[in-house]
Write a structure and sequence with these properties.
Layout (H helix, E strand, L loop, with lengths): L1 E7 L7 E4 L6 E2 L5 E2 L14 E8 L10 E7 L5 E3 L28 E2 L8 E7 L16 E2 L4 E10 L7 E8 L18 E4 L3 E5 L11 E11 L2 E6 L3 E3 L5 E2 L8 E3 L10 E2 L4 E5 L4 E2 L5 E9 L8 E2 L7 E5 L8 E10 L4 E5 L3 E3 L8 E4 L8 E2 L4 E7 L8 E9 L10 E5 L5 E5 L9 E10 L8 E2 L3 E3 L5 E2 L2 E4 L27 E2 L4 E5 L12 E5 L1 E6 L7 E9 L12 E6 L2 E6 L10 E2 L2 E2 L4 E8 L5 E7 L6 E12 L8 E4 L1 E7 L4 E7 L1 E2 L5 E9 L8 E7 L3 E7 L6 E10 L4 E4 L4 E2 L7 E4 L1
Parallel strand pairs: 8-16, 10-17, 20-28, 30-37
Antiparallel strand pairs: 1-2, 1-5, 3-4, 5-6, 6-7, 9-11, 11-14, 12-13, 12-15, 15-16, 15-17, 18-22, 19-21, 21-25, 23-24, 23-26, 26-27, 26-28, 29-31, 31-34, 32-33, 32-35, 35-36, 35-37, 38-55, 39-51, 39-52, 40-43, 41-42, 42-51, 43-50, 44-49, 44-51, 45-46, 45-50, 47-48, 53-54, 53-62, 54-58, 56-57, ...
Length: 753
Amino acid sequence: MVYLNVFIVHDIQDPLVKVYYNISGEDLEDEGIVQTFNISTKDLSSTSSVFVTMWAVNGVGLKSSPLHSELVLGEGGELELVRRCSSYNCEGHCVCAAQDRTCGSSQGCRILDNGMGNSSLTVIDTTDLKSLESPVLGNDVDFSPFDSFLAASWTVTNTKSTQPVRYEFSAGHSSGTYPTGIYTESIERVWFDAGPLMSAVITLPKGRELTPRLSYSVFVRTWYDENTYNIYKSDGVIIDISAPRTTSLQGIAVKEHMESGDRKDIDYQHRVDRIYLSWKNVLMDTQTGLLKYRAYTSTSPGGYSIHASSDMTATNCTVSGLSLESGTMYYSNILAYNKAGLVAWAFSDGVQIDVTAPVAGTVEDGDGSGDVDYQSYQTRVSASWFGFADKDSTISKYFWCVGSTNDTSGCSIVDWQDVGLHTSARARLESPLVDGIQIWTKVYAVDVVGHTSTVVVSDGVIIDSSPPEVKDIAYLGENLVSNPSFEESTSQSTDCHPELPSWKAGRHSCIKLLTPGGHHATHGITIVYVRGSIQQNVMNLDVGRRYKATIHVGYPLDITVNQKVVEGFISFGNDVFTFSLDPHLCVDSCYGTDGRVILWSQYSFSFLAQNATTPLKIGTSSISMEMALDHVLLQRVDHVGNADTLETESNIKIQAVFRKHWSSVHVSWHFHDGESPLVEYTMAAGTVPGGTQVQGFKSVGRHAHGTLSGLRLSHKQKLFLTITARNAAGLTTVSRPEPITIDMTPAGVLSHQ
């Protein structure tokens, strides 16, 4: 686009005309296509000269330096270009001088003081080039973020009879009355033509920049006639090309707060309608200073999708009227403007909304190695817990207490205590707890926004400070096995399916009924041979009470060298125990004074009744094995009774078989604990009291019996046994019965009580 300004001496006709650029026109070859435009004028017959000024305007609105031409009216009414000229004013301005030069030096100019009765100007600095067409006095700027140009517009603010006829503009330091600091007058042009235009954009030459922190003004030289002008200037702009910056100091940040006025940053909150935030000393500007802030809320750093504030100068605010969603992270984003209009962002680390309480976990009594139901110490309580969680935030602390009631509020032993994030706790008591009392631990969790979980109660722990008690005498009840010695059978039968009242043969088993006589049977005159198993259901049991089963087993009378070594078992409900007979088939040991005999081995086993009716099963581990069975007993064990009416048994009962090539020691015992159950027994054997030379300590679990087999012992050697019993509270009792003297006399079966 080209602006044309036509100035006719003593008259102006359409002084400013816009001509839009196009590529049509006359092609003058070397000079290219010449664009032409016609301008209507008044009658020029009385005018000697016409002045034409042209500016080219680029696509962003910047104007070139003007081209001035003078045309004179020639013969025939044609206008001719003046090529030789003289100065037209006191500054030597002319239309024929070289670019940026004049036709003479400055002389005779009259500079007015603020117009001196002529119309005066107000110059307005701006950085918004769009505002140049319609300047507003109140929109003057004092700071500029640009170091490559200055811009201003001006307006006549004190209208007098004498009006300005044209303008020139320049730029320089605001501290002077004449433009200095940008242009060097001795070598380059200082003033630039504006003609009748009332605005200007001054772009600095390439490689030249305005100095930050200095103030620059736009100067306007206003001409009233050829020899009279006045210079006006704007109040100046300070150059600031640096945007605000965020601090790197630790602890200073955009923060969300739990309450207004707080200083601590939070990562979670329970409110859904507002966010309290602050950003003191987060954003700084070292040049022009900060002008204002805007606060935004979004689900991403730098976003503004949820909320946008108005301009503010404070460094804290409350963002209200929100509808925040639980489990969602929200960010507070602060936009800071400096006085030059440059901006910088600062973001919080976010705050997540939590409106749900923590999920309760599990509480275990004890020191953290697993839940315990019993403990031996009376002046200390402890517990641990796990599984507490919070879906939308995190656990901040736990509270625990200990009470003597199985509820969520009773804390009579240890009152509620804050243990932070520890997942275990312990406390010492001033007064010892009494034996047998049961206590419960209670725990609840608190998340970071203050929600609390439900109170979780442990399953309780019972105090037992006394070790197991050795029972010197056990009272055995009546035999609960029907037909225990098979004497109720009608007749001897060597087939595999005799009629045995109260007994039932196992599947694929072979049971033979024999009557070899009293000197072969252990009780009565009848015995059975068992291949597989034989069983009966024992009734009228007291659930939870201890019972003792005793069996007598041995190799059959018709044993041969092809007989398989017997590995037998006895089961009582779900409890199964195994036993072994002499692996050498009692060779050279199965004969007495009357010939072949059965070397009976006696085994005793202890059970806890799980049901009122329980199957008792005795057999071999394979149907290819065969053993003799007689006199089966199942008796209830009590530790209080009448010795005159009940069978008694000492604390330790030893049933042993001693052979030169193989020996077996089967031991049963009686311990009692009134507060906690017995959880483990161990046994060992040695050649000295408490020794382990023959057998190291071996655990038999909760079973009140054990077997040491495969031993190689010497005749008349002493064997010392050690039995330990441990209760659920961890306390142990040791029992050392009288030693056994090994007797290798043939056909020896030892029962030591």
